[in-house]
Amino acid sequence: MKDLGALKYFLGIEVSRSKNGIFLSQRKYVMDQLTEIGMLGCKPTDTPIEMNHKLCEDMDRLPINKEQYQHIVGMLIYLAHTRPYIAYVVSVVSQFMHSPSVSHRNTVDRILRYLKLAPEKGLIFLNNGNLEVVGYTDNDWAGSITNIHSTSYYFTLVGGNLVTWRSKKQNVVSQSSAEAEYQGIAQGVCELLWIRGLLIELGF
């Protein structure tokens, strides 16, 4: 067995090390995907989705290439491993995998143009010796036009480093914004408890 040294590239993820910590990015993966799709020369945009978007299942009934849409969304799901800030918009467009329309494809293209703005962005894990576990949650009450379900979002940090995050539509309809917030907080607390238990098992 040959020792190839410190990890630098793995499954589309670039790894950079320094005395301060580790930086993960998918710059090459982003550029390769833009080239494959034919959007390498696209005009970048500052936001991944329109504010107060009205995406739903029955948008315009104009069919598109379903397989290509599914391929691009799958690629975006993988990119969210180093870009947590696109988790929400990716969860939105992934809801229409079974029957995408032109409006859905336009939204996916906007996400790609947003990624083109700064393909080198990623995650940094600082070597600061701090293991404090902190979590944050948020939600959009009745944000889904299709079935008025809310979407919860949480992320957790260990020592100031982002380690887990998720954006997911709630399973039931919340009767108030307070109920939607409670459901989101419950998901976030469960994640905090799991991380805390894992750290204890690892001897921290």
Helices and strands in order:
Elements: E1 9-10, E2 13-18, E3 21-25, H1 27-37, H2 66-79, H3 87-93, H4 102-117, E4 122-126, E5 133-140, E6 151-158, E7 161-169, H5 177-201
Antiparallel strand pairs: 1-2, 2-3, 3-4, 5-6, 6-7
Describe this structure in words.
The chain has 204 residues and is an alpha+beta fold. Helix content is 36%, strand content 21%. It is built from 5 helices and 7 strands. The longest helix has 25 residues, at 177-201. The radius of gyration is 19 Å and the shape is flat. It starts with 8 loop residues before the first strand and ends with a helix.
Q: Let me know the number of strands.
A: 7
Q: Number of helical runs?
A: 5
Give a short account of the largest sheet. 4 strands, antiparallel
SSE-based structural type? alpha+beta
Strand order in the sheet with the most strands:
1-2-3-4
Shape: flat
Order of helices and strands: EEEHHHHEEEEH
Could you list some keywords that capture this structure?
4-stranded antiparallel sheet; 36% helix; alpha+beta; 204 residues; 3-stranded antiparallel sheet; single chain
In short:
The chain has 204 residues and is an alpha+beta fold. 36% of the residues lie in helices and 21% in strands. It has 2 domains: 9-122, no CATH class; 129-201.
